[in-house]
Amino acid sequence: MDKKEWEDYRNDIVDEHQELPFYLDGKEWWISRLYGEEKSYLLTAPNSDTQFFATAEELFEKGIVNGKPFMEQVPYLDLM
């Protein structure tokens, strides 16, 4: 994912409160925000292992994807 794609994706989550998928190493993940709430969730599919965060920013800072910090994985995310 390039910088522009990340900025658009991030905006869709933070400002638009969208629930969006991404893929990494053939595994499906989701970032979810409940509309009108700050809470954010990082989920795997299909088993739905879920990480809970107070805000989307906290998810970006503290979320773990494939054993690594979320932000370290951003360049490798596939939005399909």
**Total domain count:** 1
- Determine the structural class based on helices, strands and strand pairing: alpha+beta
What's the pLDDT, averaged over the residues? Answer: 91
Number of strands: 6
What percent strand? 25-35%
Description:
- The chain has helices at residues 3-14, 56-62, 70-73, and strands at 20-24, 27-33, 40-45, 50-53, 64-65, 68-69.
- Helices cover 29% and strands 32% of the residues.
- With 80 residues, it is an alpha+beta fold.
- It is globular.
- It has one domain (3-76).
- β1 (20-24) and β2 (27-33) form a beta hairpin.
- The mean pLDDT is 91.
- A four-stranded antiparallel β-sheet has the order 1-2-3-4. The protein has a two-stranded antiparallel sheet with strand order 5-6.
Write the layout of secondary structure elements.
Layout: H1 3-14, E1 20-24, E2 27-33, E3 40-45, E4 50-53, H2 56-62, E5 64-65, E6 68-69, H3 70-73
